[in-house]
Every structure is written in structure tokens, then in C-alpha cells.
Amino acid sequence: MLTRRAVLKAAAAAPFLNLSRYRLFAQPAREYSGRAVTLVRESLVIDMLNQFLYRRDMQAKLREWMTKPGAFREADFERFRDSGINAASFGEGADDYESGLKLFADWNSFLAMYPDRLLRINTAADFDLAKSSRRYGILFGMQNSTHFRRPEDVDTFYGLGQRSGQLTYNFRTLSGNGAFERRDDGVSEFGMRIIERMNRVGMAVDCGHAGERTMLDAFELSKKPVIISHGNCRALYPDYPRNVTDAAIRAMAKSGGVMGINFISSMVKPHEPTTVDDVIDHFDHVRDLVGIEHVGVGSDMGIESNDSMAPAELARMLASMDARYHAHHREAVEHLDHDQRTYDLADALVRRKYTDEQIRLILGGNWKRVLAAIWV
């Protein structure tokens, strides 16, 4: 078994190598093509919905990392660095203004404790800085807008580091309606003012979890590109409320936006098993519908999925989810549930005959381009 250093050295020497297979990071069950290893190593890799350490049985560990100096050890950091991901949106949420302030205070404090390991993403240039300095970039992106009491609060949270925000989660907010809401009345008057303010300060408007009418309104109202940080294609899974219709995908692309494909099993297709190739079908659909420039990654998990929990805990968690999620027996797609899943994704894209340039765009190039256009 080759060491990580040997693999990367071999990949650098033969960037188009595709016949040899390598085992990475002492993972005996996983092998990757030399081409996939090279692409991940050389590309900027951005995950627009990656909740850091989000496993339900690891929340005490995350709290320890964030509050106890020195608790986030080098060995902990190596898992993030070796994932192949250079930057990720943390996909947090807040119940109100006060809890939003505390959330950003906690995260800013955490990053300040580890400046040699973690980097807050404020500008598009910071993506390249995170990669070149071998730090893990963290983009402050919110999964709702309930911390905005008035439009001026957008400025406050921008100052605290927020660079993207969903108008809604699954249900109605003051800004608009979520995908699970019984009736979608679209973006509200208040939501229109929030979008205007986000455009003004340079904060990405995100329609992840939004209902279709709310999405279509946002694409029309925004003067800057609008993103869908994480969602899959309803054309491949009809009637699933969290997936995105072709009409909304076209409108998203017309705005100049990018849509992130996620790796949650129950959003990929209605029945198990789900495979990485089923996920690639969703990349294919967006590419064929609106072009390769409008699709990226929004995995919707952390360094690993909840499938790593004890089986009984996982079963209880899945059973407790809203029935509209149609939860499977697994949370994540098999082979995309672990911390080296970027290599599995790259290998699958190689098998599907994507070019190197197309794979680089999917892995992070598209996200950097669209966020650079929004953050000005």
C-alpha cells in the first residue's frame, strides 16, 4: 500500500494516469485512479453545504473543540485537510437574532484559536489562500433567514462573516416559503427587501430548501446570481418536495447561479440502494439542461454522515425525521458517506467521461466564479 505522499508524488509525475489504482490514507477498502487523485489534488474543491462535524452523536465533541483551547488537535484537523475539500459552507441555522449573534461569536472564536488550521472565507481570493496555505476554509452560510429582524440586520451579520444565506428552511419564514410548506406564496415584501440588502452588501441569496414559487421569485428579484447550495433534480425523482424542478433550474442558470448536488440517499431516488452513479445522474441532468457552468457540490453532511453512528442510534434518528423526507435505511449514498468522498466523486465523474476541466468546475471552479460575482 502506498503512502499518501507517494500517491501524490506519482500523480504529479503522471497527471493523466488512469490505469493505476491507489489506496489512500490507509483505507484498504477504497482505491482511486491516478487521474482522480490528481484532479482532487490540483483542483480547488468547495462544498457549499458541509456541516463540519454534524453527526448527532458527536455534538459534544464539536462543542469541546469550539470552547476548550487546544481540544481541536492536529490529528482532528488532518481528517479535514486530507478530505480533499479546501473550503466548505457550514450550513448553520439560528432561531432568532440573539441566537444568531451567539452562533457567529462561537464560530469566530473557534477560528481565532486555530489560525494556522482554519480560515474564514470572506472573499473569493480566500479560497485559493486556504488551498495554498493548507488550511480548511470555512464559509459562513446560513440555512434560514430568521436572524434577520429587519433589512439592516443583513449588514450586521455580513460584518460578523456571513457570506450566504437561505431565505427559508423547510417552512415559512418572514422572507418566503420552504419546500414543505402547504402553500407556497413566494417571496414576501419583507423577503424582497432582504434580497435587495443581500445584493447590496454582497451576500449570496440561497434558495436551498425553498418552495418553487419562492425560488422563481428570488431568481427574478435578485440583481445578482442566486444559488441553490444543495438540492437534486425533480425530473429524476418526481414529486419529491426538496428536489428542484427543471423550470427552477433554468431560472437559476439564467440568473447566473450554481446548484449544488447533494449526497443524501433519500433525495437521489425513491428506493435503495443508492450509488455514486445515481448521484452522477443528477450532475448529468443539470449539465444537459443548462450547462456544466451551473452545477457544483453541496453534500449536505459533515466530515462524514450519520451512517457512522451506531446502527440503533441511526435507526432512531431516521425514524424521527419528517415523513416528507422519505428517509431510507441509510442517510447518505453508499461510498459518499465518509471523509474521502471527494475522491469517490472524482472517480465516478472520470468513469462517466467528464473532461478534466469539467470535473474542476464541478469540484469548486463554478462556486468560486459565482461567489466572486456576488461578493462585489
How does this structure look, described?
The chain is an alpha/beta fold and 376 residues long. It has 2 domains: 1-39, no CATH class; 43-374, Metal-dependent hydrolases (TIM Barrel, Alpha-Beta Barrel). It contains 15 helices and 11 strands. The protein has helices at 4-13, 34-42, 59-67, 74-81, 97-113, 125-132, 152-159, 189-201, 212-221, 246-254, 265-268, 276-290, 311-319, 341-351, 356-374, and strands at residues 21-23, 31-33, 46-47, 87-89, 118-120, 136-142, 162-166, 204-206, 226-227, 259-261, 295-297. The strands form 3 sheets. Strands 3, 4, 5, 6, 7, 8 and 9 form a 7-stranded parallel β-sheet that branches. Helix 7 (152-159) runs parallel beside helix 8. The chain is globular. It starts with a helix and ends with a helix. Residues 1-18 have low confidence and may be disordered.
Helix content: 40-55%
How much beta, percentage-wise? 5-15%
Count of separate DSSP helical elements: 15
Mean pLDDT figure: 93
User: Based on helices, strands and strand pairing, what is the structural class?
Assistant: alpha/beta
CATH superfamily of the largest domain: Metal-dependent hydrolases
Biggest sheet character: 7 strands, parallel
Gyration radius from CA atoms, angstroms = 20 Å
> Which fold name fills CATH's third level, the topology of the largest domain?
TIM Barrel
Q: How would you describe this structure in keywords?
A:
376 residues; alpha/beta; TIM Barrel; 2 domains; 7-stranded parallel beta sheet; two-stranded antiparallel sheet; 42% helix; disordered N terminus
